[in-house]
Amino acid sequence: MTQTQTQTRNRLANRTMAFVLAGGRGSRLQELTNSRVKPAVYFGGKTRIVDFALSNALNSGIRKMAIATQYKAHSLIRHIQRGWTFFRAERNEFLDILPASQRYEESTWYRGTADAVAQNIDIIDSYDVDYILILAGDHIYKMDYELMIQHHVDSGADVTIGCLTVDRKQASAFGVMAVDGTDRITEFLEKPADPPGIPGDEKNALASMGIYVFNWKFLRERLLEDMEDQTSSHDFGNDMIPDIVAKGKAQAHRFTDSCIRHPDAPAYWRDVGTIDAYWKANIDLTDFTPELDLWDRSWPIWSYSENTPPAKFIHDRPDRRGTAVSSMVSGGCIISGTEIRESLLFTHVTTNSYASLEGAVVLPYVNVARHARLKNVVIDRGVHIPEGLVVGEDPEVDAKWFRVSPGGITLITQDMLDRRAKGL
């Protein structure tokens, strides 16, 4: 990269604000979001889902950020306060937390994604930026946003939308874009029954990632207009984007053009919005060469790093050996005489003798008692697995006490175990 190109990148990053939408509950994750919003759900052994959007922005050179919260935000706010407090105002760096606070009407919280931005126009104005990057805080991926912002500037678009290439048969679950030969968006369709194909690649479609780049002055005017529209749902995907596509210039930016990956690796993006998808994305990290590279020091995923001792494995008898094969075990874990296979353990998990875990995603501060056998499970934070509990061998028995997903993954929470103990 030439010096001029580097200077241009730095100027664009300095003139951009990242606005992260993190207020949605994520109800498809069932009891995992009973006490926390989806972006605050744990992922990958030591991070939260929201860390990916924030880390991408930070690694892209963006130092002005805000995060809008609404549903059960305490866990998310506490995580941001503990792990993301290294911004320095004297260097013109910010990360503001913007809870829904009835700023315009006493009965109104954030009414939609666009309204979450609109209610904070005065705060965004204070950042004195030229561009605003709207991000969903609930997806797993690594992306250089600077390349997308540069594409937006070069194309002269009113909005640039990050797009995934997906199989056309599966695209009905997304907002889908019809584009011309230059990737200018000609139509935006929300979950269409018959998604339009890509010119020259009719088997695939372009699906929205929920990532948008705007010139701030342009978006500001559109937001004020939308706030006055009584027929609007005040949402980017439902209202503002289709209107801009129809009346202005909207450009598609393909994820493959800015995805951070090794040269031979696929472009990795995951919506971990269901128990099955969440379990698989975590377990995939235990593969010999996972598609998502968390070991890449050139594009790290920043997070709150708890001060923990190294993981510890104890006992070495044929029937009582602390082992972990094809697994990830985080700091503070004590594996005492337990056999662990193809599992991911978060911090401070303790497992006891004669227990076994296979295909287990175990959140922090879980204790697994002796003789427990757990297969294909997600265990919520702070759960105490009782002695001899067997899960993953009889789906009908599991479904009596726990939540069993369509894909056969069993979610275990402490409330479920308490009801089981009482026979309720």
TrEMBL record:
InterPro entries: ADP-Glc_PPase, ADP_Glu_pyroP_CS, GlgC_bac, GlmU/GlgC-like_hexapep, NTP_transferase_dom, Nucleotide-diphossugar_trans, Trimer_LpxA-like_sf
Listed GO MF terms: ATP binding; glucose-1-phosphate adenylyltransferase activity
Segments forming domain Glucose-1-phosphate adenylyltransferase/Bifunctional protein GlmU-like C-terminal hexapeptide: 309-412
UniProt EC number: 2.7.7.27
Gene3D superfamilies listed in its UniProt record: Hexapeptide repeat proteins (2.160.10.10), Spore Coat Polysaccharide Biosynthesis Protein SpsA, Chain A (3.90.550.10)
Binding residues for alpha-D-glucose 1-phosphate: 110, 175, 190-191, 208
Domain Nucleotidyl transferase residues, every copy: 18-286
TM region(s), chain numbering: none
GO process terms (BP): glycogen biosynthetic process
Pathway the protein acts in: Glycan biosynthesis; glycogen biosynthesis
Keywords, alphabetical: ATP-binding, Carbohydrate metabolism, Glycogen biosynthesis, Glycogen metabolism, Nucleotide-binding, Nucleotidyltransferase, Transferase
UniProt-annotated site: Could play a key role in the communication between the regulatory and the substrate sites, residues: 70, 109
Catalytic reaction list: alpha-D-glucose 1-phosphate + ATP + H(+) = ADP-alpha-D-glucose + diphosphate
One family name in Pfam for this protein: Hexapep_GlmU
Highest taxon of source: Bacteria
Subunit: Homotetramer.
Family (UniProt): Belongs to the bacterial/plant glucose-1-phosphate adenylyltransferase family.
Known function: Involved in the biosynthesis of ADP-glucose, a building block required for the elongation reactions to produce glycogen. Catalyzes the reaction between ATP and alpha-D-glucose 1-phosphate (G1P) to produce pyrophosphate and ADP-Glc.
This protein's name: Glucose-1-phosphate adenylyltransferase
